[in-house]
Amino acid sequence: MTFGKGIPLDSAAIMSIVLESILYGFSVLMFIGTIWALTYKRHMRDVNRPIAAVAVLLFTLSTAHMVIDIIRTEEGLIQYRDELPGRPDAFFADISRGTFVINNAIVVLQTLLGDGVVIYRCYVVWQAIWVIILPSMLWCGVAVTGGYSIYSFSHTTSTSGHIFSKETQQWISAFSGLTIATNLLSSGLLAYRIWEIERNVANSCTTKITTTSILRVVMDAAILYTIALLCTLITLICSNAGPLVMIELLTPIISIVFYMIIIRIAMGKNHSHILTVRGELMTGSETDRGNLRHYPLKPLQVHISQFTHTDGALVCRNGSQDRPSTGKEVSVEGASCSV
Questions:
Q1: According to the model, what pLDDT value does residue 85 have?
Q2: Residue 125's CB: how many other CB atoms inside 10 A?
Q3: Rounded to the nearest 5°, which phi and psi values hold at 190?
């Protein structure tokens, strides 16, 4: 049976495993960089454990997805190559197989995890519940449509030369559309808040540099993720095998997007700490000089202690004297005592 238009399904499987392997390699390197950024020169109590746990979970899911994808490709091209009437195309067209269903369940879990982290960042930055109400509702919609997509995969059969039934296409389209909306809205709110903070502290050169770079990487990550989802939607409409390739690529892309933000924020914290200390020293010295210029000179009272030694006793007396100020305030005090 010929499955619609587009490249052959066995070619699509090879293409997807090659591209996913390349992206997975990048994600492994970025995962190592993320763990290094979170733990470098820090005690265990200072490590952001929730973010580290999310990074490890994303890495675990992407690794499991890669392993299952290799198993599925091996089964279709070698193990069951001659056992099905349609050869490899028939195997890869059967989206109700367990390997395909599990792989897409991993994609849904990673999507929910990544979007949930972005929504959590919005709450942390805004410190307001009302800001994340709409993104949270969209996130719930992503969970529902993702769950129904997995259910549709497990109960569908390839008919009329098409891999995805009309119902399955609708669920995938709804899932991708809601994911795009959630990602753009959450990233937009986060970027706006960062920009607003930068504008409010525009007099601080250090803060401006740090927040600008973080703002740029947040927007870059959102654009990368959105382009991947848009490509999935477009291939779902225009091609029969295209979605099989794009769905496999979403898992490493989600991990890469998360890692690049964490690495940049961690680098920004370390850089801003050093520059902030220097900036405070510079600002403090300039402020001191400004205070000396703005405050008028006033008479200064200096306390002078007089010491008298008589017959083994040390008597301390205090005296005072008014002198004109020279711009510095000095106080020397003594107290009565006896030995």
A1: 64
A2: 17
A3: -65, -45
